[in-house]
Amino acid sequence: MQWLYRCPACGRTYPIEPGRYLCDHCAKEQRPDEPLRGVLECTWEGGNPEPGSVPLPVEERFFPPIPVGQTPLWAPERLRAELSMPNLWLKDDTCNPSGSYKDRASWLVAAFARKFGIKEIVLASTGNAASSMACIGAAAGIKIKVYVPKSAPIAKRVQILQYGAELIEVDGTYDLAFDQSLAYSNATGMLSRNTAYNPLTIEGKKTASFEIARDLAAGASRSAPRYLAPDHVFVPTGDGVIIAGVIRGFEDLVRLGWIDKMPTIWAAQAEGSSAIARALATGRFEAVPSNTIADSISVDIPRNGYFALDKLRRHSGRAVVVSDAEILEAQRYLSRASGLFAEPSSACAFAGFLKARAELDPNAQVVVMLTGSGLKDIKSAALGVGLKI
Ligand SMILES: *Cc1c(COP(=O)(O)O)cnc(C)c1O
């Protein structure tokens, strides 16, 4: 297999090597108040991987020794009964090493750094990407420098320092942190793990789709194929990298002939940060200051907006928008009726599923992606249960 980057907008290709982030041609038209232009996609030519493996652009031997992914797919019996949805599944990515889905991307970026002998990685984050990169960097022996808004939940900032990363607290939003971290990596040549900007952050996030399809097949009858596509997947969405990665995973499975259809992918967003849902309806992105309790999906400009929108449109993706009150309610309900305590962003996916449920076939195979642990943001969860802290 020969791996390369391809620009989905213009088709230009580039080698996968240090210093390459966006498409030179398409990134020229970038305006400051819109999603990134020229976001690159990984692809391969020549030959296919063995069934059972995931096609990835870095060889397995470079992956750091830390157990990322292979997370459980829960069959939540009480929820299934209460909601009359007998094929509801919860993909539990709260049990990744740093407690979030971001570890899947950090793992691939760290493997890339090891392959090329890179010793330092820098990134901006609302908290989870930074605590994730700090965690994986600790396992891999790579120095990590992170730019995070001062307002990020305390647990995420503590994690960053626990893992020994350098924390720069930015007096402003994630968007400012993004610009500052890029200024640093551009000036020093350090590897950037900024979400969407580094194409490996999208590619790394596709692995969950392979696990879901494999685990659904394992639950089906013996004569079933080794992979089975779900009907619907609900994905909490901020910058649009997780959702793009999840779609990429299912696209790969279709390309390989391992599944026979794409699932319907739902972008679940908070009312106070719903740029991708709005763009899906209007075709345009407007920069609107974000305001939601779900900090991990609170973005003014969704960095991967164009790329994610293109993928959603190509596969008839949907969007569902919920209020902060619905998020907190769903967070409590999910915890009580399943035993899975997820952070508000993840609860947004569950709230989105609850809202869209009336439109779904009751027998559909539905997967809700739970991307971060509830213990990462105790302040919001305390609000939900009426505890003063
Ligand atoms: C980052 C994150 C998301 C959203 O992912 P995007 O790629 O920004 O859309 C959702 N949930 C959690 C827990 C996250 O950390």
From TrEMBL:
Membrane-spanning intervals of the chain: none
Enzyme Commission number(s) of this protein: 4.2.3.1
Entry keywords, A to Z: Lyase, Pyridoxal phosphate
MF-aspect GO terms: L-serine ammonia-lyase activity; threonine deaminase activity; threonine synthase activity
Xref: SUPFAM superfamilies: Tryptophan synthase beta subunit-like PLP-dependent enzymes
Cofactor section: pyridoxal 5'-phosphate
Every Tryptophan synthase beta chain-like PALP domain range: 68-372
Coiled coil segments of this chain: none
A GO BP annotation: L-threonine catabolic process
Protein name: Putative threonine synthase
Biological source species: uncultured spirochete
